[in-house]
What we know:
By secondary structure, the chain is of the alpha+beta class. It is 50% helix and 14% strand. It has 8 helices and 4 strands; from the N terminus they run βαβααααααββα. The chain has a 4-stranded mixed sheet. Strand 1 (2-6), helix 1 (11-22) and strand 2 form a beta-alpha-beta unit. Helix 3 crosses helix 7.
Amino acid sequence: MVTLYGIRNCDTMKKAWSWLDAQGVAYDFHDYKKAGIDRARLEGWVKELGWETLLNKAGTTFRKLPEADRQGLDAEKAIALMLAQPSLIKRPVLDLGSRRLVGFKPEAYAQAFAG
Length: 115
């Protein structure tokens, strides 16, 4: 089963939902705001994708962090920040079971579901 991770109020999420719906792809939606994210899953994603890929440094949530939190980032610090504030996780994360895609690019989604 395909799972789309993110938050409801996000333009990029809306693009991903629209694409998946238009292609007739069945998926579950995991809302970080309501359900959070567990450490084991997040650590697995970091191991697979790298914390640099997952941590959304461009968002308002990151910019509002105290300077000390934004400095000296490494995997463990990034994981702690993302667990404390799931809005820091780049959206969406599309879990295909065998691999994950971060962000929304129509061509990457099309390739993932081809065949």
